[in-house]
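hey can u check if this looks right to u? its 69 residues, i copy pasted from the old doc so theres a chance i mangled smth
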Amino acid sequence: MKKSEIARKMARQSGGTRGEAADRLDRMVQDILDGLRQGRETRLPGLGSFRQGTDGRLVFRREGGSRRA
C-alpha cells in the first residue's frame, strides 16, 4: 500500500483532509524511526513491533510471534 492510499483511508476515517492525514502519517513514521535510532522497540497495535537487532538491522515481530528482518 502506498503512502497516498494510507493517507486517503486515514482522512476518510478521521473526517480530515488528505494533506492533514499525510502529515500525521509522516509524523508517525518519524516517531518510529527516532525511537528505533534511540534503541527503543516500537509497537504497532494489531500488527507487531519493530526493534533494532544486535547486528543493527531492523527486526519486525508480528503479533503472534513470527520474526522478519
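The chain has a mean pLDDT of 88.
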